[in-house]
Every structure is written in C-alpha cells, then in structure tokens.
Amino acid sequence: MVWGVNLGADNVTNAVNMAKAIVGAFRTLAVQLSGVVLDRIEVGNEADLYKNNGLRPRNWTVQEYVADWENVAGAVAEAVGINSRNDPVTLQGAAFAGQGFTPREIFDLGILDSAPGKAISVISQHQYSAAFCNGGDFPLVSFMSKAAVRGNLTIFEADIAATNSKGLVYILGETNSIACHGAPGVSNTAGAALWAVDYTLQAAKLGIKQTFFHEGVGYKYNFIQPITLNRSTVDGSTLDPPSPPHVQPSYYAGLLINNFIGNTGAAQLVELALPADASDVLPGLGA
C-alpha cells in the first residue's frame, strides 16, 4: 500500500504523528500476518491545487511547494526511519493533479538533493479525461478516439523521460475516465471498458510503470462495486431491492489486459498501425 500524509495543513507535528501511526499499524502482528505491506508514504496529495482550495495563498509557487515539502517530508522521513530510495519503505513524490506543477520543475529546483528527496523512489501524477464535478455532457464517442487517449497521456512524456533519467519509477497514482466519480452513461458502460484497455496499454507504451484507477463506494467508474448499494449510482434514487456487490464494465478491461500480459514475463507491447478504415484489412468489420 501507499499511504498519504497531510501536507496541506502545513503542520509538521501533525504529519509526523500521522506517519508514526501509519508505520506503527503496519508493524502490528495482525497486519504482518495478513501479508499487507506498506511500500511508500506520499507527503501531500495534489498540492498543485492548494492555491485553489484555500490551503495556500493564490500566488503560491512551485518553489514554495518544494520548500514546504522538504520541511514536512524531512521531518516525516526522520521520524519513521526512511533514509533512502532503497529502504523497505520509501517516499512517493509529486502526486500532482495536473500540469500546474511538474516533476521536471521540482527536479530542477533540487528536490532530489534534499534529505527526504533522496528517499523518493517513485514519481506519481494524476490524470482524468474530463471532470463531472459540476455535471456535464460527455459523448462516449470521445473515449473511443485514439487521438483523445493519446492526447491525454502524451502530455506526460517529458516528465516520464525526466523521471527515468533520475533512476526513478513513473506512475499514474490516480486516474480513471471522468473525475468526480465518473459520469453516468459513459464511465459505467462497455465503451469505458474499451477505453480502459486502450488507455492502460498506451500508458505502458509511454513508459508509465503502473496506473492506479480511482475507486470508491458507489462510484460510476468503479471496476468493482464492493458493497451493497441502497441508492442508484446514476441518479441517487432509492434502490428497491438494493443492488448487491457486483463487477462493472471496466472490470472486464482488467481481465483482458491481464490475459494479454500473461504470467511468463515475456510479453511485449507493440502498437500496430491500421488504416483509417479498418475494414480495409478486416473485411466484414465495417467502417
């Protein structure tokens, strides 16, 4: 697991206490016997949005972010004994919501030369294809567009290259179709499953090591609805009878990708170029 520690509060004592509690929990016998392991601690989630949500002044800069992060993450790392990126538990860096701040900027500002920076093993960024926070109409066909999928991911190419050049792993630590828990008629459809296949494989092709799809109770873009639901995920109406736990369309994307990859370790990812009209090479498929 990767566990987050609060940076937004700008309170070192609070962050240290959180980190100690997290590490302590994973050291308990019950957790150790469960096989669940703490891989990384992430100090600050989507800090590039702090200046928009009142956690920092409107003119807060990436330079100030680096100073804040080094101060809080330094105390956290020291308190729980994280010293380098080779330790059993390391730090996860960046976790930015968009391109407001970038890994390239924080590298140039020397974050990796700081004591906590030397414990960063993974760089994470977040990405969605749209946002449903205030509602909206999102045509499903846009998620079937290769140009749209590639446009949403290629913006990270320079960050991926910069991260890899530092010997670090690059991931999408939070992603899915449409932010704010998905959009009805898009995120919960078979089309979203096709999108998830293309999106995940394209991410891998670009050198993104892992993609962590955002999930929650009742979210429209879930791969799995984990518990019984009493209200509709589409319009909030009461369900009678309630909906039992179930898989959703995107779950099948995971199955398909898993079968692509297999377990031999020998799978290779190659993108095949097709003409604009696939029926030219696949008769009967249709335009």
| Main sheet: strand order | 1-2-3-4-5-6
The major β-sheet equals: 6 strands, parallel
**SS-derived structural category:** alpha/beta
Portion of residues within helices: 25-40%
Number of strands: 10
Strand and helix order? EHHEHEHEHHEHEEEEEH
Shape: globular
Per CATH, the superfamily is Glycosidases
The rounded Rg comes to 21 Å
> Could you list the spans in which at least 5 consecutive residues all have pLDDT below 50?
279-287
For the record, the count of structural domains works out to 1
Ordered list of secondary-structure elements with their pairings:
Elements: E1 2-5, H1 12-26, H2 29-34, E2 40-43, H3 62-80, E3 90-96, H4 103-108, E4 120-131, H5 146-153, H6 157-165, E5 169-179, H7 190-206, E6 211-213, E7 224-225, E8 229-231, E9 238-243, E10 246-247, H8 249-261
What would you note in describing this structure?
This protein is an alpha/beta fold and 287 residues long. The protein has one domain (2-280): Glycosidases (TIM Barrel, Alpha-Beta Barrel), CATH 3.20.20. The protein is built from eight helices and ten strands. The strands form three sheets. The protein has a six-stranded parallel sheet. The protein has a two-stranded antiparallel sheet with strand order 7-10. A two-stranded antiparallel ribbon has the order 8-9. Helix 7 (190-206) links the parallel strand 5 (169-179) and strand 6 (211-213). The longest helix has 19 residues, at 62-80. The chain is globular.
